[in-house]
């Protein structure tokens, strides 16, 4: 399947905008991806460069595209995700509150993904888990990579659930959690526990067992929250002990 379809003579900028939006909504283009250069893009679509510029200008005005002088045209972060990030950045949230939101988002998403049975999306979940297992076996462990793969695993499940807004929301939440604390995967034994939890979730998803998927996800989030709270308590105790008396 070709990425771009040539437009018939007389096509206008609205049709160019439609193709760009379809490429984004289908997942072929994601935030941060760059569109083809203007001349190349016009040739691919069979339209004039002014038509391409008009379409890009309109989508830039809507916040869909980001034009960076000297670098090109990029897919912008969705407005809903940007607004959510800005709103959350102005407030302080406890780790407990953030994990509670993970539970609200991820537990039903796992059930929907199991029911939906999107083969390609579930394969993506499986592939991410395989990469995480391989990364966990490396010595020394790259905890930054493990943390990213852990986030990718949960985002892939939400993607398999087929809810784009839920995917954006969880993505923002994951970033805030990662910025606010070191990964819990650094706690001895946590990588192995997470691997077992993830495997149970994946098994339920592939079996199409929505209830088992929800319960496995709930157990995992509760376990991660308990580890995070324990880690914070230990850090607080260490700080208190280090204070001059």
What are its keywords?
10 helices; mainly alpha; elongated; 3% strand; two-stranded antiparallel sheet; 245 residues
Quick overview of this protein structure:
With 245 residues, this protein is mostly helical.
Can you characterise this structure?
This protein has 245 residues and is mainly α. The chain is 70% helix and 3% strand. It contains 10 helices and 2 strands. Helix 4 (79-89) runs parallel beside helix 8 (164-180), helix 5 packs antiparallel against helix 8 and helix 6 packs antiparallel against helix 7. The protein is elongated, with a radius of gyration of 22 Å.
The Cα radius of gyration reads 22 Å
Major β-sheet strand ordering: 1-2
Helix content range: over 70%
- Please identify the structural class as seen in this structure: mainly alpha
Number of strands: 2
User: Roughly what fraction of the amino acids lie in strands?
Assistant: under 5%
- Number of discrete helical segments: 10
Mean pLDDT: 82
Sheet of most strands:
2 strands, antiparallel
- What is the element string, with H for helices and E for strands? HHHEEHHHHHHH
Query: Kindly, what is the distance between the CA atoms of the first and last residues, rounded to a whole number of angstroms?
Result: 70 Å
Q: What is the 3D shape?
A: elongated
Poorly predicted regions are none
Write the layout of secondary structure elements.
Layout: H1 13-25, H2 38-45, H3 49-61, E1 65-68, E2 72-75, H4 79-89, H5 95-116, H6 119-136, H7 143-161, H8 164-180, H9 190-207, H10 210-242
Antiparallel strand pairs: 1-2
């Amino acid at each position: 399947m070709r990425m771009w379809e040539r437009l018939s003579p007389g096509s206008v900028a609205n049709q160019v905008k439609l193709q760009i939006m379809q490429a984004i909504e289908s997942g072929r283009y994601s935030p941060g991806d760059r569109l083809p250069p203007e001349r190349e893009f016009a040739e691919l679509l069979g339209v004039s460069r002014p038509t391409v510029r008009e379409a890009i200008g309109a989508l830039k005005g809507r916040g869909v595209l980001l034009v960076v002088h000297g670098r090109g045209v990029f897919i912008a972060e969705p407005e809903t995700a940007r607004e959510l990030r800005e709103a959350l950045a102005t407030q302080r949230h406890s780790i407990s509150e953030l994990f509670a939101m993970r539970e609200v988002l991820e537990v039903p998403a796992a059930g929907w993904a199991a029911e939906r049975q999107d083969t390609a999306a579930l394969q993506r979940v499986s592939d991410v888990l395989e990469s995480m297992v391989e990364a966990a076996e490396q010595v020394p462990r790259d905890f930054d990579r493990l943390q990213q793969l852990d986030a990718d695993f949960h985002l892939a499940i939400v993607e398999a659930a087929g809810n784009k807004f839920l995917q954006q929301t969880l993505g923002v939440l994951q970033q805030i959690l990662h910025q606010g604390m070191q990964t819990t995967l650094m706690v001895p034994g946590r990588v192995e526990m997470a691997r077992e939890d993830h495997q149970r979730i994946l098994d339920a998803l592939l079996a199409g067992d929505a209830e088992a998927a929800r319960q496995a996800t709930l157990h995992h989030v509760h376990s991660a929250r308990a580890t995070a709270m324990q880690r914070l308590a230990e850090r607080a105790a260490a700080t208190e002990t280090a204070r001059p008396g």
